[in-house]
Amino acid sequence: MAYPRQPLFAPNGAVATSQPLAAAAGLAVLRRGGNAVDAALAAAITLTVVQPPSNDIGGDLFAIVWDGERLHGLNASGRSPAALTREMVLAATERRGAEPVDALGGAQAAGPAMPARGWLPVTVPGAPAGWRDLHDRFGSLPFADLFADAIGYAEHGYPVAPGTAATWARGVAAHAALRGEEYVEFDPVFTVGGRAPRPGERWRNPDAAGTLRRIAATGAEDFYRGRIAVALDAHAARTGGLITGDDLARHTSTWVTPVSARYRGHEVWELPPNGQGVAALLALNILDGVDLAALPADERLHWQIEAMKLGFADAHAYVADPERAEVPTAALLDPGYAASRRALVTAWAGDPVAGEPERGGTVYLCTADAGGMMVSLIQSTYLAFGSHVVLPGHGFALQNRGTGFRLDPAHPNAVGPAKRPFHTIIPGFLTRDGEPVGPFGVMGGHMQPQGQLQLVSATLDAGRDPQAALDTPRWYWHAGRSVLVEPELAADHDLVAALQARGHQITVAEDPAAFGYGQAIWRHPDGGYVAGSESRVDGAMVGW
How far from the centroid of its chain's Cα atoms is residue 293's Cα? Predict the structure, then answer.
């Protein structure tokens, strides 16, 4: 397929999101005098209503903020319930045959895995607290003002976008196989007579409007210590959940220092674990020692795929909750370690394993304002509709991020109480010599570091603008030597044959959802910004 969209040039500010109504909500805030954080929050809150299969009030959030002078990172992911144990998961999985999911992209060891749906993978939602904490530190408009569009769409309805409708239909199809009292509320809230809403069909969620009003009025306090918390505690107790009011009351976001890797004279920034951003940085560190632009196309892609495999091998081995386990982030990102990993890449497709460093469904959006503040923000419930557990009378689904835990008790990411799991959602940011270039991200689970690598390479190796970089045909590695490619890449038969000769097992995937959806905003050298947004789905970028 062709992606004819052109980049957006804007003199004062820009918003790029995966859904046009959310982009418009962010732009409205900028035009009212709000800053980039205000705009990002308005867009993020609106996305919970207009793109609910991918993110919701019951999800998590991560953000990187350039305040005009330096970067700040917010980890607003939630922890597992205090009552959760490995033995409990094993017993429930054996008893109920709970649906497993390979959250770690083929890296799970043989044997039982965390369930994908129901109460067991539910962790404390971090997004409402994340909204509040970002606003408390950086916001300029009143917090409640940022909820106006989201509440309006939830109360009065909106026509569902085509890409969202497709994801919605997949989520509803998955829900049809689920049985249990915890799932009963899903159909009344998220289906139209048992089916997903069709493209253009108007959908309302008045219960979500009420929940958002309470979060807006109380600065999210009602969610963690008030009526919403009481309702969630009672619903869990009644239907077999582990999460309690105490779990909610103990939740805190964490301000963190972003970590980086050098690439082509730039710095690529991610948040440190428990997110998988280090996988992208590990791969870029490896590739920074290779002149990709001088290589034939097949060798260039081969290097990218093999570097990404090595990045994932280390991320899956070491990423965990740094408050509960030692995570050797600095050692993993050391240039000397990257050189040792680079030396492992041969002319043939490999099956990499983790190295030994020295010890010591998602939505993405980005915004920029006239004062130079820029935001990279990502939030998610994971998969389509997360756990599929919906709180009665409140209109939102709970995330299933606990799916990212391991059941191996010796693994640093082993399932357990009050822990943050391995997290797939990762915002990115690009600088050069300490000066901001801009925020970027690619949503899509295991695709996210791979999409980020390909976006950064298309920008810095091929010199493409944000839209052209996003539109560049993508590949996706999941496990082993299997690589999915978009039809545009597969149309180059010589390229495919050359990759196959190196041992890669190439499969063409027609579904654009397999390759992630991204956005990027770069600061323009002549002032203002240039933005791109995903052409494979309902993405939009707007500016003024």
Answer: 29
What confidence score (pLDDT) does residue 186 get? 98
Q: What is the pLDDT of residues 320-368, one digit of tens each?
A: 999 999 999 999 999 999 999 999 999 999 888 887 775 447 899 999 9
Question: Which helix (DSSP H) or strand (DSSP E) does residue 529 occupy?
Answer: strand 529-533
Average pLDDT over residues 369-379: 97
Mean pLDDT within 522-526 = 94
Distance in angstroms (rounded) separating the CA atoms of residues 508 and 235: 44
Global pTM exceeds 0.90: yes
Kindly give the interhelix angle for 36-50 and 206-218, rounded to the nearest 10 degrees: 150
Helix, strand, coil content of the chain in percent (nearest 5): 40, 20, 40
d(CA 378, CA 63): 6
- Tens digit of pLDDT for each residue in 145-170? 999 999 999 999 999 999 999 999 99
**How far apart are alpha carbons 184 and 186 in whole angstroms?**
6
State which residues form the domain around 280: 1-544
What is the chain's mean pLDDT, rounded? Answer: 94
CB distance 45 to 94 below 8 Å? no
Nearest-CA neighbor of 93 among 403, 427, 413? Answer: 403
Range 58-80 average pLDDT: 98
The DSSP letter of residue 397 is: B
Residue labelled with tokens 């990423």 = 319
User: Hey, how many other C-beta atoms are within 10 angstroms of the C-beta on 427?
Assistant: 30
Q: How many domains does the chain have?
A: 1
CA distances from 333 to 272, 375, 446 (A): 11, 24, 20
Give the closest residue to 429 by CA, choosing from 36, 3, 34, 4. Answer: 36
E-state strands within 383-481: 428-432, 435-443, 475-477
Sequence letter at residue 7:
P
In Å, how far are 30, 58, 281, 450, 510 from 293, measured between CA atoms? 38, 43, 19, 18, 28
Reading phi first (left if > 0) and then psi (alpha if -120 to 50, else beta), residue 126 is in: alpha
**Longest CA–CA separation in the chain, Å:** 63
Catalytic residues: 362
Please give the structure tokens belonging to residue 262: 């050098």
Mean pLDDT, rounded, for 189-200:
96
Segment 57-77 shows an average pLDDT of: 98
Token output for 427: 């915002």
Coil/strand/helix, residue 436: strand
